[in-house]
Structures are given as C-alpha cells and as structure tokens.
Amino acid sequence: MAIQINASDLQYTYSKTAIPGDDPKISGEPDSTLFNRNELYEVRYLINKLAELWGFKDKSSCLKIETMIKKHLPSEIRSQSNVKQWIQNNWKLY
Prior knowledge:
By secondary structure, this protein is mainly α.
C-alpha cells in the first residue's frame, strides 16, 4: 500500500480555500482539470494520487513531489495530467 500524506506533513504554506465546485477528486485520476499549486487540497490530492499510482512507500518521495511542484514546475504547465507527466519526466533531475 502506498503512503499517504496529511496536510501537516507538507513543507510549504498553502491556501485552504477552494472555489465552490472546484473538486479535483471528481474524476478520480489526474486529468485535464486545471491545477492550482497554491491550494492545499489540490497539492495534497495530487501528491497522494501519484504516490498511489507509482507505489511510493516513503514520505520523502511525496515531499520531493511537493518541492518539484512548488519550486520547479514551469508556470505554463497547468493541468493535473500535464503536472503528472512533467514530474515523471523530470524526477531524476531533482
């Protein structure tokens, strides 16, 4: 079973307010939905989903995803699926 992180595990500060109806869990998979790298629930959802998909067993891999999103993710990459692909393509660089 993959590790899941809690909000208290995250290293950066996030907004905790969401636009009504803006729920990344609707489809159940990272998709073309726009991703807000500053929203707590969106970042946590994506990290946990990727940890599940990729079978991560340790928290350090989840925190690496968080750092990649907050510090390195290009601003033009905006959908969940594109963020997922970018992380996958750039994993060894960070």
